[in-house]
Structures are given as C-alpha cells and as structure tokens.
Design goal:
Shape: globular
Order of helices and strands: EEHEHHEHEEEEEEEH
Helix content: 10-25%
Distance between the termini: 8 Å
Low-confidence stretches: none
Mean pLDDT: 93
C-alpha cells in the first residue's frame, strides 16, 4: 500500500498521514510532484535484463519521453543478493539534488522516497505500480531497505542519467529507515 507522511523538518512531531492514492497525488501536486498509479502487470525473472523491462513498458516510456522531453531511461534492479546493495543504500540515503527532472516507475518491489522542499519532509512509500516525479533541484533521499527488492524504470531529461549533487545535510539521520517506517506507519 502506498503511503505519504508529511513531517516537520525537525522530524520531532507526529506527521500528517495519507493512505488514499488520490489524496497522496493531491498533496504531492502542491509541491510540484507527480504521483500516479499505473498497471504493473508484467512479471520478470529476478535477473531480467534492463532491455527486457524497458521493452515491456515501451509504450508508457515513449509517452513519458514525448510529454516531458526525457532523453534517457534505465532500470535500477536491486535484490537482497545484490553484491553492492549496502553501498547503493548508503549512497541513496544521503540527501542530494539533481539538476534534471526525474521520474521513477516501480515495476516491482518498493522503496521510500523522502522529498525535502522548504521546511517540510514528505515521505512517500512507493510500491509496485507507483510513478513518482522528483522535480529538478528538489532535495531528497531514498531508502531501499537492508534487504532490497525493487525494479524501477528511471527517466531523465539528460542523456547522462543519474547524477547527484550531495547537499552535505545529515537530515536523513533524523528520519526512520524503511524498516522502521513500515513498522510505524504501514
């Protein structure tokens, strides 16, 4: 189940909680973030190639490219046996920005995005079928969990793809990791 919690930047008081997809989309639209629920009806082998996943959603990917001017798309696929899962998790947990507008579509699994516009933090638990945008220069971080299981199509407005500019802010340390978030809010 997708979930949105909105926290003060300090992370010290109880958050607002939204479980309804329409309410989540409405609240995120207020900060310029697109949230949609798509059909993710394709099943893939754990070691499915990037091109296989992109080909399965080619029509949707091309539609997004045409609508938003995306120049590149890739797939991030991380399972519990991924040899670099700890390194990837640590990298994504650091608050960062991107100069380009990004979109993520969860083909399988789930992950927890934290968006940090202004003085609030929006935690979005995304699951299979969720599409989420991250506007350019929006401070954010992501947790895929200690035992990750996700496949996401990522779209970028630059041909280089994922390039992060880390803020150096340790704000992510004040917010729950995926496992604690699930125990507390899901």
């Amino acid at each position: 189940m997708s979930l949105l919690t909105i926290h003060p930047e300090s992370g010290t008081s109880a958050p607002e909680i939204f479980r309804d997809g329409d309410a989540i989309a409405e609240r995120l639209a207020e900060i310029g973030v697109l949230f949609e629920r798509w059909q993710a009806g394709r099943a893939f082998e754990p070691d499915a190639e990037q091109q296989t996943i992109l080909a399965a959603y080619a029509d949707s990917v091309e539609r997004l490219k045409a609508k938003y001017g995306f120049e590149s798309a890739d797939v991030i696929s991380v399972g519990p046996d991924h040899p670099q899962k700890d390194e990837l998790r640590a990298r994504f947990l650091n608050e960062h920005i991107h100069s380009d507008f990004e979109v993520r579509f969860f083909v399988e699994g789930r992950g927890l995005f934290y968006l940090h516009p202004g003085d609030r933090v929006y935690a979005i638990l995304c699951e299979r079928g969720d599409l989420l945008s991250v506007p350019s220069n929006t401070r954010h971080w992501f947790d895929m969990g200690a035992e990750p299981c996700l496949k996401c199509i990522r779209l970028f407005t630059t041909p280089e793809g994922w390039i992060a500019d880390f803020t150096g802010n340790d704000i992510g340390e004040r917010f729950p990791r995926l496992e604690e978030y699930l125990r507390t809010f899901a």
